[in-house]
Design brief:
CATH superfamily: Jelly Rolls
Radius of gyration: 22 Å
Strand order of the largest sheet: 1-21-18-23-16-15
CATH topology: Jelly Rolls
Number of domains: 1
CATH architecture: Sandwich
Shape: globular
Strand content: 25-35%
Oligomer: single chain
Distance between the termini: 23 Å
Bound molecules: 1-hydroxynaphthalene-2-carboxylic acid
CATH class: Mainly Beta
Largest sheet: 6 strands, antiparallel
């Protein structure tokens, strides 16, 4: 492939004439926007240690009252994109949020979709369109686009959760905004109770639900049971993994990001297929090492890391006796909708 002409190859007065008309020559930038064979991700493999973050998060609890923060969050930012961009990957935002006993994070709704993966503590809850969802370690709670949500805490110890949002993409498309609301009355039906068995769904007056988000809370105890059952029913299955779906449609639980739980069997190595989306990994239980490019991350419980797309990732559970449980978030639903999803 021949080299293309550079910007500096053009006379200065010509470049200035272009700029004056809001024009840019394509050829000096063509290889940058359309690199050969595969993309050149800005997303750097990055690791965030919960042990290192927790004291800083608790310090934020002393430094900034909830009324002055609305959401007390330390953002897990990818240095490859620049920390100020507050993104883990092209479409994924990650943050660790702290709620102290008695605190309340007021009701609002917004265009970006969010989920919370509960990391530590008991007694807090999120109310989503009137459905009060208790928060326990490993639970996944959806706050999809446009749904009212607020957080409260009746327990006696700090609660921490991982927020995952598609904010970078929604912000990029200039569609990100929020609306503040009043405290919600609790009247929502507990989706986690009525959709407990994947094989049967409510059929009210001979009709299936038409709600876009019929299930908001995915209790960890049940997701873990599903993984253990899948692992023991299919002992030769190499990737013991479940997808968080809308139980009415079987589609991804949210529109833009995909959410999964993966069990590494004792001593197991999983080489993930090389795929186009970036991926985030968070340890719910156990420990794992994760190899990506020139990095090897040692993940303990509650640690988080991310890997760019188009990049091989290997997961290893070095414990010969105990399984490891990971929560994954990726950009597959987005890539599929855009028609750019690839497995290499
Ligand atoms: C948000 O609404 C929450 O509701 C957390 O807890 C983090 C980050 C960016 C924009 C909105 C929440 C957020 C957020």
């Amino acid at each position: 492939m021949s080299d293309l002409a550079r910007l500096e190859d053009l006379p200065l007065d010509y470049r200035q004439a272009l700029t004056a008309q809001n024009l840019v020559p394509l050829w000096p930038s063509l290889r940058g926007v359309l690199p050969p064979e595969k993309p050149r991700p800005q997303t750097a493999p990055t690791f965030w240690s919960y042990k290192a973050i927790k004291p800083l998060l608790l310090q934020a609890g002393d430094l900034t009252p909830i009324e002055k923060a609305e959401r007390r969050v330390l953002v897990l930012a990818n240095p490859g994109h620049g920390l100020e961009k507050m993104q883990a990957s092209p479409a994924i935002y990650l943050g660790l949020q702290l709620l102290l006993p008695g605190e309340w994070a007021p009701s609002h709704r917004h265009t970006p979709n969010a989920v919370r993966m509960i990391v530590e503590g008991e007694g807090a809850y999120t109310t989503v369109n009137g459905e009060k969802c208790p928060m326990s370690r490993g639970d996944l709670i959806l706050t999809p686009t446009g749904l009212w949500h607020e957080h409260g805490h009746d327990g006696d110890k700090p609660v921490v959760w991982l927020d995952v949002l598609d904010l970078p993409l929604v912000y990029y498309t200039e569609t990100s905004y929020h609306i503040n609301g009043e405290r919600q009355p609790i009247d929502g039906i507990r989706g986690d109770k009525i959709y407990k068995y994947g094989g049967v769904v409510p059929t009210r007056d001979f009709e299936r639900s038409k709600q876009a988000y019929p299930m908001i809370r995915y209790p960890w105890v049940e997701v873990k049971e599903s993984l253990l059952a899948l692992g023991s029913e299919e002992p030769t299955l190499s990737t013991v993994m479940v997808t968080y779906v809308n139980p009415e449609t079987g589609s991804d639980a949210e529109n833009i990001l995909g959410y999964y739980a993966l069990m590494l069997r004792p001593g197991q190595t999983v080489k993930m297929p090389v795929r186009s989306p970036s991926c985030v990994f968070h340890v719910i239980e156990g420990a794992a090492s994760l190899k990506v490019l020139d990095k090897e991350f040692k993940l303990s419980e509650a640690d988080t890391c991310c890997a760019p797309g188009y990049t091989p990732v290997t997961l290893v559970n070095e414990d010969a006796n105990k399984p490891t449980f990971l929560f994954l978030a990726d950009e597959s639903p987005l890539h599929r909708k855009l028609g750019v999803y690839e497995v290499r």
